[in-house]
Amino acid sequence: MRLSRYFLPVLKENPAEAQIVSHRLMLRAGMIKQTAAGIYSWLPLGLKVLKNIETIVHEEQAKAGHWAMLMPTIQSADLWRESGRYDDYGEEMLRIKDRHGRDMLFTPTAEELITDIFRGHVTSYKDMPLTMYQIQWKFRDERRPRFGVMRGREFYMKDGYNFDLTKEDALHAYNRHLVSYLRTYERMGLQAIPMRADSGPIGGDDTHEFLVLAETGESEVFYDSAVTDLTFGDRDINYDDKAQCQSIMEEFTTKYARTDETHDEALFAEVPQERRKVARGIEVGQIFYFGTKYSDAMGATVQDADGKQVPVHMGSHGIGVSRLVGAIIEASHDDKGIIWPEGVTPFHCGIVNLKQGDVAADAACEDLYSHLTKAGLEPLYDDRKERAGGKFATMDLIGLPWRLTVGPRGLKNGVVELTCRKTGESEELTPEAAIAKVIAQYT
Ligand code: ATP
Ligand code: MG
User: How far is the C-alpha of 220 from the C-alpha of 208, rounded, in Å?
Assistant: First the structure.
């Protein structure tokens, strides 16, 4: 992409309405624009990051054997009356009437609709287990939308639902989700710690929230600092292997880590004093096992191997895809701007031309651009006629992990400069060596 043709409306001033750094930086970097309280347009740069996060979620769900599907945002109230949640959900649900006076709603979550799809098609244990998910816009009329996309009213969420014959199978699905989520967040450059939580209006006993530690987080969390030493890393996972998924679940959930909703002072006191931490966290996902709550209410039964009709065991699993954009920035920025982890960066590398219009500099930039593009990377070339300081400030603000700087003086010596956004370190390299180094970061 050439910056002269791109839509990147960066702001020089700090927007007054933004209270936390991710909101401020997303506005300043021209990623989003608010249209109403808690409702945002995603501008080109913001959308790219959102889509990168979405792609990682899809890839990891596919590995776990879960099927992507898409359900509508507008649903009829009837199914929600069946489960009893139409009245329970309260003011967070956006209720709409169509022209015939029928009650409709904008989906805040989709347990009812997926259960309806399931009961309409699956009648036998032979078609189980089944896990399906979607990544779709949700609406919750939050009392206090704030912090930009972190607590929006309209937000983008992955929601998945498992259907299993037995509790044991459903708990395997729970573990499988826990494992796949650990992988998903790590690929985004995040540490998200599973913490025992409360199930709220979804219902059920078994639930973990995934929290990213950050001062600006809305949840108070209590944990054994040893949990922060756990990393998933590069493991071979067989998602059908119940014992393996179970043991990873135990590895990541045995040490004390809870949100304030389930915090237990007596248990916490058993953690050695120097490892007892009280902090704040951002909830980026949650998994639930809720047994037969919805299948009982909505008559989702299947025939088991003995020919008996039994209610199916279910769970649901969510990832806050749009909230993650903010959460990643909270976890990765400095006073100059965003520092994108390589896994989600909107462009792989920036190219700054120090002297636009200089024949040698222009040609060298074009050459870098075309080599990187041919290697399958997406560079952002700042080809505007602007002073160097402004170009650097924009690149630092939008946070691309690598920057190539090209100027007539360096070119006379046969070099360009490669700068790492995270460390700030620069080195002079031949254009070929610089290209090879950037490509190596992404392979
Ligand atoms: P919270 O406690 O933050 O209100 P929740 O527990 O009600 O969230 P879930 O039903 O677990 O939310 O939804 C799954 C994920 O969707 C959450 O883990 C969170 O990352 C994201 N999410 C929930 N509400 C919002 C919101 N208002 N804005 C952005 N993301 C949200
Ligand atoms: Mg939650």
Answer: 15
- Residue-range domain boundaries for the chain: 3-338, 349-440
Which of 39, 109, 157 gets mutated to test ligand 1 (max ligand atoms within 8 A of its CB)?
157
Q: pTM for the whole thing?
A: 0.96
CA 123/CA 389 separation, integer angstroms? 66
**3-338 CATH, one of 3.30.1360.40, 2.40.30.10, 3.30.930.10, 3.40.50.2300:** 3.30.930.10
What is the enclosing helix (H) or strand (E) of 440? helix 431-441
- Give the span between the Cα atoms of 61 and 285, in whole angstroms: 14
Q: Which ligand is nearest to the CA of 219?
A: 1
Q: Fill in the amino acid letter for 79.
A: L
Does ligand 1 lie within 6 Å of residue 183's CB atom?
no
Report residue 280 as tokens: 């704040």
Residue to probe by mutation, ligand 1, list 286, 324, 329, most atoms within 8 Å of CB: 286
Q: Which residue's alpha carbon is at the smallest distance from atom 14 of ligand 1?
A: 318
Please name the residue that has the structure tokens 């080599």: 371
CATH architecture of the domain with range 349-440: 3-Layer(aba) Sandwich (3.40)
Q: Which atom of ligand 1 lies at the shortest distance from residue 318's CA?
A: 14
Tens-binned pLDDT, residue by residue, of the chain (443 aa)? 999 999 999 999 999 999 999 999 999 999 999 999 999 999 999 999 999 999 999 999 999 999 999 999 999 999 999 999 999 999 999 999 999 999 999 999 999 999 999 999 999 999 999 999 999 999 999 999 999 999 999 999 999 999 999 999 999 999 999 999 999 999 999 999 999 987 766 555 689 999 999 999 999 999 999 999 999 999 999 999 999 999 999 999 999 999 999 999 999 999 999 999 999 999 999 999 999 998 999 999 999 999 999 999 999 999 999 999 999 999 999 999 999 999 999 999 999 999 999 999 999 999 999 999 999 999 999 999 999 999 999 999 999 999 999 999 999 999 999 999 999 999 999 999 999 999 999 98
Query: Which residue puts its alpha carbon closest to atom 25 of ligand 1?
Result: 151
* 10 Cα: distance to centroid of ligand 1 (angstroms): 28
